[in-house]
Amino acid sequence: MNLNATLFAQLVVFFILAVFTMKFVWPPLIKSIDERAKKIADGLAAAERGKQALAEAGRKAEQELAVSRSENQQRLAEAEKRAQQIIEEAKQQAEVERKRILAQAEAEAANEAQRARDQLRDQLATLVVKGAEQILKKEVNAQAHADLLNQLKAEL
Q1: Measured between alpha carbons, how far is 46 from 40 in angstroms, rounded to an integer?
Q2: 143-156: per-residue pLDDT in tens?
Q3: Rounded-to-integer distance, Cα 51 and Cα 43, Å
Q4: Rounded-to-integer distance, Cα 130 and Cα 124, Å
């Protein structure tokens, strides 16, 4: 076999194979590589959009959390204010009740003192009658002298 003919045949086969590869094999490979590169680029872009969306959601969540905290602080302040109002109202009601009870007790004490005075007047009138009876050495009829006793009570 001739070395030149073999080399020439190999060269022809190589060029045929190269042309065949460039015409039929290479375009689908390049197309697959381009599609794969496009998918990777789309995936990276989607990941970047996801990161941005996550960051935005985090900012929104922080804002909502801050709003919720401020609302809670406001509600707590309102609740404390309302509690103070309720305490003040209770104090005022207790003061009114204390004054009412005190007035009632004073009235009862005055009534009791009046009853005691009346009893003392009655006892004094009885003692005066007995004393007068002993002084006069005669019996004084309390029924007959009721007007006199009532005048004496009124004077006392």
Answers
A1: 10
A2: 656 766 676 667 66
A3: 12
A4: 10
